[in-house]
């Protein structure tokens, strides 16, 4: 079949464009991200209370009369003001499952909250503290019975590639988690 309006130069450009489009499609479908790895880790939990994070109310310089202020009680920053932020500068948080999850079926009273408050509608990652020499800030991890979390913090007792801390809002939930050895899925960036 002969197409009179197609010249050899036009056919070449069309073929080159199609091959470029197909190679781009192949690259996008194959993905550029590294495959997630699973590692057996020792996972402990912490919360924002003074016994977990090492802060105290009031300063002895003011005879503890400024009880509304929080100060670091130990370590190299002892006496400095405590802000509650993580090492990466964010506020710690627990993972939120989002509206389209099994959590909405298990806790149906959260459905109106997630519908009326748009920031509760979408899922969000929790805060994980890890050794940033092995897992830089922003590394995503999946911890069974906790959910997805992002490395946003580090701690003095967290050393090595097999040790992380997960954040809970309540001290009771952190104590209930305790110390576990679980298989953690790690998504490298």
Automatic annotation (TrEMBL):
The keyword Cytoplasm does not apply. Keywords: Signal. Pfam families: 3D. One of its GO terms (cellular component) is outer membrane. GO terms for molecular function: hydrolase activity, hydrolyzing O-glycosyl compounds. CDD domains: 3D_containing_proteins. This is 3D domain-containing protein.
């Amino acid at each position: 079949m002969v197409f009179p309006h197609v010249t050899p130069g036009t056919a070449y450009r069309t073929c080159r464009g199609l091959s470029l489009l197909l190679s781009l499609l192949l690259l996008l479908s194959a993905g550029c991200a590294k495959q997630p790895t699973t590692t057996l880790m020792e996972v402990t939990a912490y919360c924002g209370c003074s016994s977990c994070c090492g802060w105290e109310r009031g300063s002895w310089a003011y005879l503890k009369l400024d009880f509304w202020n929080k100060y670091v009680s130990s370590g190299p920053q002892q006496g400095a003001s405590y802000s509650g932020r993580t090492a990466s500068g964010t506020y710690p948080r627990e993972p939120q499952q989002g509206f389209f999850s099994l959590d909405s079926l298990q806790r149906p009273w959260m459905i109106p909250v997630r519908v009326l408050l748009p920031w509760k509608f979408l899922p969000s990652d929790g805060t994980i503290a890890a050794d940033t020499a092995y897992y830089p800030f922003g590394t995503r991890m999946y911890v069974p019975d906790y959910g997805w979390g992002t490395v946003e913090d580090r701690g003095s007792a967290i050393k090595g590639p097999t040790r992380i801390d997960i954040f809970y809002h309540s001290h009771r939930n952190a104590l209930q988690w305790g110390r576990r050895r679980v298989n953690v899925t790690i998504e490298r960036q």
